[in-house]
Specification:
zinc ion binding; NAD; Isopropylmalate Dehydrogenase; alpha/beta; zinc; twelve-stranded mixed beta sheet; 2 domains; magnesium; single chain; magnesium ion binding
């Protein structure tokens, strides 16, 4: 069942929607008031540099080097100071690194890049991933979560990792997000449902199913999964993005949202009941809507997040609109987590070709989300 396209018209009701002080477009706010981007005086961001054979170390170093220009919030790197020093020399970056701890990182950040050391060493082999680095990569993620959960860090920002070297070393999780959810669940004593959001200057897109083959999507998609994903999305938009009553656009699975069953029954049998269930819970959800008209400029003004049925339905428009500014945000966790929207890029690691734009956006957004959540709790 296809929703009326008139829902996309701009109305006074939308423009007068009650909102808290945090604006819908966090990027505009960051550009307008860069000096306000610290989380709290003694709560820096924890940054994992990701796979040391990829561009994670490159962009971590480059981000710190641009800290003044981009008004970055203080952060520390969970990593190996020798590996980072080696990469800095390779890149020709005259950056002073300092062994630090979360409590000292804010003070150290102005003149040096604070590095909180790991027990496991990381080998600096740019472009040559190795299972030997798996223990350190995993430890950095575990430490980042522990720091965020304890309050030592305001949020965790994760550098890109590659799955194969971790799998070769016995890593048992489908990916970064699932591992973070596992660690969060251990910390709070109950299961955590993570939701991926790609957040950019003009689009927030949420895939309901993530890293599965396209052929498996119809059987994996359930009404319950869509409802749970929509519920978590709406809650985090309120708590962390400052949107009092979020508007959720729900994309159809099939072309033209199935055209009343002419191109598949999933939108009638699965997606439409999910939208009805979300509406029954008081969530402003509309759909299923044809995905081919959901992402143009005028349509994007009518919703705060788009709920998409599969990975590429969400990520293609998000990255096409703002590849260098889009941030991967994990919703549903008991702490703020952001990440650049790109991978390890082994082919350009250590060459100086990697751009830190997405990491810069991830650091800025992490600080803003943590600040907004603190205000939400105190309200």
């Amino acid at each position: 069942m296809t929703a009326s396209p008139r829902w996309f018209s701009k109305t006074k009701a939308n423009s007068t929607r009650k909102r808290r002080s945090c604006p819908r477009n966090i990027w505009k706010n960051c550009a307008r008031k860069p000096a306000s981007l610290s989380v709290e005086p003694q709560r820096p961001l924890a940054l994992t540099s990701g796979d040391p054979s990829g561009i994670g170390p490159d962009i971590a170093l480059a981000a710190w080097a641009s800290r003044t220009r981009h008004a970055l919030p203080p952060f520390y790197v969970l990593g190996d100071v020798d590996q980072l020093s080696s990469r800095a020399r390779t890149l020709g970056l005259p950056i002073e690194l300092k062994l630090s701890d979360p409590g000292s990182a804010v003070r150290d950040f102005e003149a040096t890049l604070p590095v909180v050391p790991l027990r496991n060493r990381l080998i600096d082999r740019a472009g040559d991933p190795s299972p030997a680095n798996a223990a350190g990569i995993i430890e950095a993620i575990e430490r980042g979560v522990a720091d965020a959960m304890s309050g030592a860090a305001g949020a965790i920002v994760t550098g890109p990792i590659a799955k194969k070297p971790l799998y070769d070393a016995g890593f048992a999780f489908p990916g970064h997000t699932e591992f973070l959810a596992h660690l969060a669940g251990q910390a709070i004593g109950k299961p955590v449902k993570p939701v991926m959001m790609l957040a950019g200057p003009s689009l927030r897109a949420v895939p309901v199913t993530i890293h599965i083959p396209l052929a498996a999507v119809p059987s994996a998609l359930t009404t319950e999964l869509i409802v749970e994903t929509g519920r978590i999305t709406a809650a985090d938009l309120a708590r962390r993005f400052g949107i009092a009553r979020p508007r959720i656009a729900v994309a159809g699975l099939n072309p033209h949202a199935g055209e009343d069953g002419a191109m598949g029954r999933e939108d009638i049998d699965i997606v439409h009941p999910a939208v009805a269930a979300l509406q029954a819970e008081g969530i402003d959800a509309r759909g299923p809507l044809p995905a081919d008209t959901l992402f143009h400029a005028e349509a994007r003004q009518a919703y705060d997040a788009a709920l998409c049925m599969y990975h590429d339905q969400a990520l293609i428009p998000a990255k096409a609109l703002a590849f260098d500014e889009t941030v991967n945000v994990t919703l549903g966790l008991p702490f703020v987590r952001t990440s650049p929207d790109h991978g390890t890029a082994f082919a350009v690691a250590g060459t100086g070709a990697a751009r830190a734009n997405s990491l810069v956006a991830a650091l800025r957004l992490a600080a803003r989300l943590a600040e907004a959540e603190a205000g939400y709790r105190d309200a």
